[in-house]
Amino acid sequence: LLTEFKASEKVIFIISPFITEKAVEEFVGVIPNNVIVKAICRLLPFDVASGSCSIPALKKGIEANWSIYRLENLHAKIYSIDDNKIYSGSANATANGLMIHAKGNIEACNEVSASVENKKFISNIFNAASPVDMQALINMEKYIKENVNIHKDNEDLNWPEEILPENKTIWVRDFTVL
């Protein structure tokens, strides 16, 4: 994956429920500066409080000019490079998921066709997601520090409205035209 990222020329999409600092550091270290990077994670309070998703990692991404998004029901792990290579599997964008250090998880990640349907699937994930900016990350970090014990056992809890406003848009998947 790092070899593919290093050879990228246009755009990289990182779709992973969990993103941590070591993975972002590795990615930033090899991705050319001119490449557009869009990353999406689940980013629930529980994920941050438990260390599964790292706000400092996402801040590093923003500092490297990445666009960061969140989708609270995300479970997919997909890496797309220049619209011509797509890897899908079980590997989160974490040190363990990508086996960046000596010990890590045994994961499966396969190259899949960069078909029109697969690219549309990736696009749909980003279209359903909400952008996250630096100020939102700062507010989330502060909230977790102030309320660290509240979230460790509550996976269903979401961010307060003042930190991350709920998307009040209506999404329609199937619509019958009469």
Number of helical stretches of at least 4 residues: 7
Average of per-residue pLDDT values:
88
Q: Give the low-pLDDT segments.
A: none
What does the radius of gyration come to?
A: 16 Å
Strand content: 15-25%
Summarize the amount of helix as a percent range.
Answer: 25-40%
Instruction: Report the biggest beta sheet as strand number plus sense, adding barrel if it closes.
Output: 7 strands, mixed
- Going by helix content, strand content and strand pairing, the class is alpha/beta
Shape: globular
Strand arrangement across the biggest beta sheet: 6-5-4-1-2-3-7
Tally the beta strands.
7
* Element-by-element helix/strand order: HEHEHHEEEEHEHH
Distance between the termini: 47 Å
Describe the structure.
It is a single chain. With 178 residues, the protein is an alpha/beta fold. Helix content is 34%, strand content 17%. It has seven helices and seven strands; from the N terminus they run H-E-H-E-H-H-E-E-E-E-H-E-H-H. The protein has helices spanning 2-7, 21-30, 45-50, 55-63, 116-128, 134-146, 148-151, and strands at residues 11-15, 36-41, 67-70, 78-81, 85-89, 109-112, 130-132. A seven-stranded mixed sheet has the order 6-5-4-1-2-3-7, sandwiched between helices. Helix 2 (21-30) packs parallel to helix 4 (55-63) and helix 4 runs antiparallel to helix 6 (134-146). The mean pLDDT is 88.
What would you say about this model in short?
The chain is an alpha/beta fold and 178 residues long. The chain has seven helices and seven strands, in the order αβαβααββββαβαα.
